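Per reviewer request, we include the raw input and output of the structure prediction for the construct analysed in the revised manuscript.
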Amino acid sequence: MTQSDGNTESHRLILRQSRPEDYDDVAEIMEAVYPGLDGAWTREQFESQVARFPEGQICIEDNGKVVAAAISLMVKYSRWGQDHKYWDIVGNGYLTTHDPKGDVLYGVDVFVHPDYRALRLGRRLYDARKELCENLNLRGIVVGGRIPGYHKYADEMTAAQYVSRVKASELVDPILTFQLANDFQVRRIVRGYLPDDEQSAGYATLLEWINIHFEEDSPGMIGGRPSDVRVGAVQWQMRPTRSLEDLYTQIEYFVDAVSGYQADVVLFPEFFNGPLMASYNDEGPAEAVRQLAGYTDAIRDRMQQLAVSYNINIIAGSMPEYDGERLRNVCYLLRRDGTWDRQYKVHVTPDEVSYWGLKGGDKVKIFETDFGKIGILICYDVEFPELPRLLAEEGMNILFVPYWVDTKNAYLRVRRCAQARAIENECYVVITGSVGNLPRVENMDMQYSQAAVFTPSDFAFPHDAIAHEATPNTETMLIADLDLDNLREIRSHGSVRNLKDRRLDLYELKWK
């Protein structure tokens, strides 16, 4: 369930195959997007598309309403060559040309409701097409791309010159620039592709995306759980922050950077918003952290927007939450489909109690994501092996641990325990913290960190059971690819099998 406060938009985005009953929503979008190109498909055309090649008709719905869609078909490209016309290759919109034995995916159309263009849904649909192309083991994707910006320059340059300048980033075309940014290459310029397209002066580009994984047949569809998960972790520099907008700028910078590597998730550190306490330092640490809690909802909502916009799941480190009675430390999971959830820190340190009056949460749980089951434990919690074991019993594959520590020996407690949790629970563990110093924030004046990704210790994993680690005490990010199939393998056939070999006839672990 999507939650929000104030004026923050609520989104519940779902990527799925289009269905016949989606026609009214799709027609509404097409009428808004193509008022000068005959508007929407007919209902008969749309139903024919879904019936002939259901896997290739992809849409994104938000709270039950379709807000973006992509239409595709498979063709034997040698039959059509490079001089085909749009209406011919798409079977006049009915996809009668779809060939289940084709070798390329042909992109018919992608359109996004004007109200949703800031959310980068077009990129999400392009990524879904690429996934479909790979799963169907096709040679690549071919599209005929309009160049609607060309009419502004048609009197002063040829279509070829215009395309060259767009490729060189000297001009921006609403469609071609986007396609180039999505790894499509221009193969030729086609005249008369869509003769009625006045904005493109009747020209189009023929573009291609090559599937580098093309090999023996392995058909499939979009939407399956991946076996490879790409994780990112931000080693965050604590710096004086003058305003909430300054903090937002830094957050978005890293979300943008990590999502640029097509990561599935990005982890931020514990109390990454600590610099905002500097304005309240004179009031004492207990009051300062409660003032900091006043920003938490706004930061969560902004990061939720970024998760949707950049198509990446965000684990938002941790922030203080104060309800007037209890001050707690909470980590938000902000999913890229628009939903969110949270995990409270269960064990609070003596320092957090004495300086701030923090209280612990009372449960841990598994979180379902589009890349599998994960757990989240904040800093000190990873030093208690019972909590990760409870999560492992529910199928956890990756444990995320945001932390904040001030000294190397404190960091080593977190690191060594995280490594142990990876081995004993046969899972991956991702940790990250902050670096630098905050001279005007009492109780958070120094930071120490070396972000890392730990693995089980067996032949399928790195010899030192470390998938990746950052340079200590330097602002940076790390990216690591994690193979979930390796976890399944060691749990059944590993050199040792920690979960399977437990003596449950002698002992058990229960949550009261």
